[in-house]
# Entry
Amino acid sequence: MESPLTKEQIDELNSIVKLPVEEQRKALAEFTKKLSPEQLEFLKKGQGCVFCSIAEGKIESKKVYEDEKFLAVLDINPANKGHVLLFPKKHYEVLAQMEDVSELFNLANNIAKSVFEIVKAEGTNIVVNNGTVAGQMVPHVVVNIIPRFKDDKVRIGWEKTDVNEEEMSELADEIFKNLKNKVVKKEEKIEEKKIKVVKVSNVGYLERVP
Ligand SMILES: [Zn+2]
# Structure
């Protein structure tokens, strides 16, 4: 498919993805303001997606793993030396759209083991951000594999939220029941179509299609 983006715009996008994360967010917001509805639609659908472009070899990368379905590359803005991005070659916006993530997470675990040994790490974080509110920068499923060192500058954390005992019990019960439908019928494939991503302003969230 022919890109509705101009060469200058593609160049600008390529330079934006090389910026540090915080600057990237601002630059992307400014960039998308200048686009026509057609161009925005094109980007949303995944054409022009940075990770799809890396998978197609349109953007250079330092590969650490590749097979038919997955690619793993060094992050060009690494949180630490050895920060690897593992992603499916097919464009999925969030993890929930993937039918089966077992291969993806087995791979992530093995890559984490290799990185751990190579950079002589003391720990690792394996992180997936699903949706803009969760800190997802590019709408393509990516597993971050971050080797950790004592006193490094990586910050992954949260403050405690108060939830009372009663709410906790109800929550546990609801999740337990809901999960039964998903886990029990393991052999029955979850239809990908049942889940779609709905965009409301800048926030992506999941919705079950009736
Ligand atoms: Zn993509």
DSSP finds six helices and seven strands in the chain. Residues 165-208 form one domain.
